[in-house]
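Problem 3 from the worked examples.
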Amino acid sequence: MFNLFSSKNPDDEMQKAQALFDKVTSTKSDSRDARSMRIRMGLLCRAHLDKSFVTGAEQMASWQELAALALANGKEKPPMPEPSVFQKIKAGDNEIYVYLPEEYAHEAFNIGGRYQRAEIPALQAIETMQGLANQICLYELKLTEPFQVLQFLRDELAQSPHNSNTSGAS
């Protein structure tokens, strides 16, 4: 009931997250349980993609400030932020680690960073991220319908009076 005194080892939790992703993506069965497992994994992957995008944008904003400060002081720019294949996602009352293969996690992180730097507008960020989600859902998880990513940005774009050109995170 209460996990106040249990110490979950993050490395073990990350290994379990990767093993779960591998198990779900390698399952050949189309049973009700297998489909349910794929759908749950799809929801976790969507949360990972969203969080990787936001993390990429936030870390890019911080990096830009540090880089500007370093340049102003005649110092070297700090190293670029690095994405993670693991994200900690809120699931009910708990937080769990979710794994995505490097190519997906890094791409989502980089799209968030590019959006933050205003290199791509919101609509392009949404379309590119949705392409990643489609690839994961349709090809990795073998779902018939992909999950929609970046709902928060879609909502923001729908609220904006000049919604076709919205770019850069604030």
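Problem 4, a separate protein:
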Amino acid sequence: MNPQDIAAALLPLLGGAGNVRTVGHCMTRLRVEVADREPVRGAELRALPGVLGVVEDGESFQIVLGPGTVARVAPELERLVTAGGTAAEVLAERGAALRAERRARNATPGKLFLRRLAQIFVPLIPALVGCGVIAGLGGLLANLHWLPALVPALSAIASGFMSLIAVFVGYQAAKEFGGTPVLGGAVAAVIVYPGVTHVAVFGRQLAPGQGGVLGALGAALLGTVVEKACRRVVPEALDVLVTPFLTVLLPGLVTLYGLMFVAGEVSSAIGRCAEWLLANGGAVAGFALGGLFLPLVMLGLHQALIPIHTTLIAERGSTVLLPILAMAGAGQVGAALAVHVRSAGDASVRKVIRSALPAGLLGIGEPLIYGVSLPLGRPFATACVGGAFGGAFVGLLHQTGETVGATAIGPSGWALFPLLAGNHGLRRAAAVYGVGLLVGYGTGFVATYLFGVRGPGPAPSPFPGAPPRTPLLNRRRG
């Protein structure tokens, strides 16, 4: 199906144009917020060709379409929604918004915070990926002493966005929490302004970028609070002048004389904590991190780790957590290969695996999660086992002094090789990471082959809505 056909098929299953409030997307998921979930036909949505899985979270539906496809379907769906709106539907949406606001008050603070945090950073992922790959290419050329004249240009292109990421985070944070986005970006821009070196706090001069994304988040949130307060008390005739003035001035002063220093200390503490965890926990810490990451991906909560990765990169030059978490994808690939081998009589399962494996090898796990392992049940658990053992290997090597980190955020798997950095050079870092992937592949394959594809009774179909089957997956070995 082409993107137009997929969007046209999705819209009625989501309850029509009047039921769709917002349309967005990340790397693999179409994120749709609906006014009322009652008219949404979930079973038919999951069974639609091209849909690899659906995650429901209140009035929000995350429809897994895979990389590339989702970026083409999202604007088509948004166009159909815009063309189908009526005045009556706008009123219905307002009523649904009030119901959603009431339900949001009953949501757990932790889950609500993580959800909003993800919404701030998800739109930044394409730029993070693009700049990360360019930075990796520049580092590779520098290490190989190829095209030395091009390396500074690549470094400038890759570093431009990262040097101003605080501004983008402030913009997105204000937008997410109900403020004026450009004012949020203006307040956060104070953090990266070179002139902050002339400001002294507690006897120490500030440094541009001090506090990083955490400081930008705090500054933008404070700016949103001030802006909302001004909107309530400032007369309308003065609002256009007074509100922006106070929204930038007051949070700006607080950011300079307190928030940057505090956020800088917290950022340093995050770096020290990550180093301590792996230096002392080693294989145990790696086992836990690698084994628990797939469930986070399944729930969409892995996006909440982006600020931690970004902070580690700003503080230490690389994030030591990402190569370990990437082992979860290796376990997923190994599990999928085992299912492929054991399902020789089931052409539909093998076709799904073959189509999703390239993305899985590049560290994009949702197609394999929602298309193969999670619907089948046991392979998801055995994939976590593979990720745990791969993470344990990398963690053990870290404890013995072989540090491996990633200089940028992006897809993991094979795509992470150009982004690697280590205390003993790129080659040894790539060797440790590569062996870790092999451990994840092998453990995930063996665990799934032995324990993940057996069981009495019919096998659940990986295509929701389809009848159960009894393929080779559930026959006894013999």
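Solution to problem 4. Residues 85-99, 455-478 have pLDDT under 50 and may be disordered. The chain has three domains: 3-107, 164-274, 282-474.
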